[in-house]
Amino acid sequence: MRFKILMGMLFSVSISMAQQITVIDKTSKEPIEFAQVGSKGSTTLLITNSQGQVDITPFIGLNDIIFRLYGYEPREFDYTEIENNNFKIELASSVFMMNEVVISANKWSQISSDVPYKVSRLTAKDIALQNPQTAADLLSVSGDVFVQKSQQGGGSPMIRGFSTNRLLYTIDGVRMNTAIFRGGNLQNVISLDPLAMESAEVLFGSSSTIYGSDAIGGVMSFQTLKPTFSLNDKPYVKGKALMRYSSANNENTGHFDINVGWKKWAIVTSVSANKFDHLRQGSNGPDDYLKPFHVQRIDSVDVVIAQEDELLQVPSAYSQMNLMQKVRYAPNEKWDIEYAFHYSETSSYGRYDRHHEMKGIAPKYAEWGYGPQKWMMNQLSINNYSKNVMYDQMSIKIAHQNFVESRIDRKFNNNNRRTREENVTAYSANVDFSKRFSAKNNLFYGVEYVINDVTSTGIVENINTGISAPAAARYPQSQWQSLGVYLNDEHKITDKLTVQAGLRYTHYLLDAKFDSTFYSFPFQEANLNNGALTGGLGAVYSFDAKTVLRFNASTAFRSPNVDDIGKVFDSEPGAVVIPNPELSAEYAYNVDLGVTRVFGNVLKLDLTGYYTLLENALVRRDFQLNGMDSIMYDGSLSKVEALQNAAKANVYGVQAGVDINLTNGFILSSKFNYQMGEEEMDDGSLSASRHAAPWFGVTRLSYTYRKLRLEVNAQYQGERVHEDLAVTEQGKSDIYALDENGNTYSPSWYTVNLKAMYQFHDNFTMSGGLENITDQRYRTYSSGLSGAGRNFVLSLIANF
What we know:
With 800 residues, the protein is mainly beta.
């Protein structure tokens, strides 16, 4: 009897020990953090901690336990094999990945080779090496996203010829787009902290089936640091402190984050503070980009001041702070609950391109900038892993967000300063389900509800007397709502062919009340009550383990929002946009075909071609107000315009990538993007699309040896001649260079950059580089701010 009890105890201890494994690098023998452990027959996904450890209790007895991490060859084991390996798994580095894990395609973790969309992914290691100052810069260094800038405190992504409110932003799975996301350039992405990112993904093409309105050109999905639990009785503590300096704008950045985890509770705290001086542009380039003066107020008079350094772009300085707090609780293996708080605030900052505008020989504006941009989010996430009739996994996300932004302008030697402030409170609730009916069939479905309350105010203040008075607001007081349901099925028809098909119905409502105090509108309110049906069909065919063919056909929509229906805004000199309550949704129809091929461990090629047709497009067209085609606005007779469903547009292009393993730690990679777009004008003629950027790309030569990473890269953009600019862009001499005929155009450019990272101690890493080595003076297409000149960057990182 005692013998049986003793054997039982030993068996129990052995099972207990068998539940925890360690994953290490095959070459360095160091533990691998964030390795993902899953199974073909389970929706559960486990992640290793900083010691490379993870408890695999959910997979005991299975014969298809898979270990994956970007940059490593995936490995599959039977549970008995793991036991025979003493619960230690070795992963070998892989130059080329065909099966990395992505989450943006269906909101769930999926293998990229099963996804018909093109997805670009940046890991925390990529972000650390590239050292982006803002989240906009983070997207830019990917080589797949083009970023426009009108001021240093901003960045407006362009993807496949679409931008602004035709792209969707998500943060930890929560929709960030609001009812005042406009068709003009957007700066909201800078509210996100690149130093608090675990990864970032870009999902290309129309994606409204899963994500609803606005996902026409693509989805940018950001995942922030996730609290990690301890696997034993000792608290798991991990943290990072960073200090960074950049010479081109005298950047001073500090960051600190810490994770403390117990068996059932875990917290993450993250704090970042940035301070940027005026940005210095390069010395070699078009003189048209120079503005060697700025305006100062001296003794109640605006004075034009000549700059000692003509390369400084004044005003462009600003500062920013980001806070994040997460608390995670998992009472058992079936429930995982997390609360997250995010807060971001910038200082006021100047919109540099507006300070280029002249009225005769004097600047048009003495002030033109944005007030503090604030973003706050409270989010509650509840995940349940429970195989039942309805689902295997359920995810509930409830979020409350608040956005504050303002515009401040004052004309040269005018005492009246106008401030218009917008405040948006957004509530959202998402419930998503995943159900595996068999090893070959996965069903994803869910429901989403979003409501936005918009409050807009206007004030005019005399800066000499301090007396203020109400002024016209930018938007009506409004409420925008959206309710959507979707269903997406993934079916593995054969071992080589996987097909996905989905449908979504979204119903949207808008109620706006107009204030006719300052403008005599022929209406007092606007109401929308309409719906949109979208869908998609995609297929992935794997010829073998090294060749994958992707096809996707999908539709997408963008419902009119408050910015479309209710905005009063001087779109350009001599024209004013007025509200138009008679709008309906615009629709996109997208087809893309892609192929990925790996040749041994030497070469990887990736090629995707796409075509998107946009119908019922919302565009500015001539309009009338009370029978008049022009009105007095801001002291000038201005032509009346309004957004209307009056055009078609199409975009087509190619995205290409190549990676070459040069052996001995050297890898050569390149990404190239070519897009062309046309949109219909009011006279029936065609114009180039404003948001279809010239061809662009990045080429990198990297070297890795143990704890050293080096990279030399070149980023570049093609020329856009005057005739190929959008008609609406051709007259903007304040942001474009002039050719030999005095016509506007966007010159081609390149930069050469050196990046380096070295871990010189177990707890300390140094990262830095020299950017724009040849000191080029350049502007990304459609930008009003030049890029940084020669820039020295240095970061010191302490890990504990």
